[in-house]
Amino acid sequence: MELSRYTCFGVGGPAEFFAAPKDTKELNAALHDRPIGSQVTILGGGSNVLVNDAGIRGLVILTTELKEVSRQDGGKIKCMAGALSITVSNFAAEHGLAGLEFLSGIPGTIGGAICGNAGAYGGAMSDIVESIEVMDYTGGITVIPAAELGFAYRTASIPKDTVIISATLNLTPGDKTEIKNKMQTYREQRLQKQPVGVRTCGSLFKNPLNDSAGRLIEAAGWKGREINGAAMSEKHANFLVNLGTANAADLESLANAVHADVLSKFGVDLDWEIKRI
Predict the structure, then answer these.
(1) pLDDT digits (tens, 9 = 90+) for 18-51
(2) C-alpha separations of 237 from 100, 102, 232, 255, 258 in Å
(3) Catalytic residue among 154, 187, 190, 225
(4) For this structure, is 276 an active site residue?
């Protein structure tokens, strides 16, 4: 199975083994049936990842079929890990629940948002996650409270050899119209500042303390530059874009060149936000 069809960059070689489970039973079966000792890679929705041209050894799990979302007691929502962020934020808005507005313009799945502690406009997943359910590679399911997830800037500590299967989000009742208006404002701001309608996976590098990766990249002269079909966006310098002809090696080569130049000119060692697989 060629993974390029499942990634936002549109690149990536084949998966040795591939599964797109529709429920936890199918997920358990995929984990159980894989060759003993083979690695497991969670692709999620294919955003925030750069998959190597050679592909991925072991089992690759696409979680986007695990997408059920439901209202719980009080201001809580339970969603499967493969539910898209925009779907969950829209669901919350329709039920008059505030707290997920920041997520409405962030691509990817809830599972990926939790792993990377996605955030914007002063909000983050760490503010709203009450607990998650994970399945280990033997099929055992465990509930983990948010306090044990080690949330920090763009990261969380998910137990090794587990797959997130669902999350319970604790939101706040609010006015439906105000919630939707805030979401619309955030989306408009993103349209103005970030590239849309192109093959990109969001921010390439994490923002260093008290600075902006985009500012440093632009100051180094890389904004809008293109090499072999890979480019740093003209709209936002910290967005790596596939113009349509780049492969994964081209994208990584450009990113590495940007990283090295920023380090040389400003002494800042930028940390990748996109996960390289």
Answers:
(1) 999 999 999 999 999 999 889 999 998 888 999 9
(2) 26, 21, 6, 11, 10
(3) 154
(4) no
Query: For this structure, is 148 an active site residue?
Result: no
* Number of domains into which the chain is organized: 3
pTM (predicted TM-score): 0.90
Catalytic residue among 47, 85, 104, 203: 203
- HSE at residue 118, side-chain half, CA atoms within 13 A, is 25
d(CA 29, CA 17) in angstroms, rounded, equals 13
Q: Clarify whether 133 is annotated catalytic.
A: no
Average pLDDT of span 138-159: 96
In a domain, 187, yes or no: no
Q: What is the pLDDT of residues 72-104, one digit of tens each?
A: 998 999 999 999 999 999 999 999 999 999 998
Q: Which domain holds residue 49?
A: 3-61
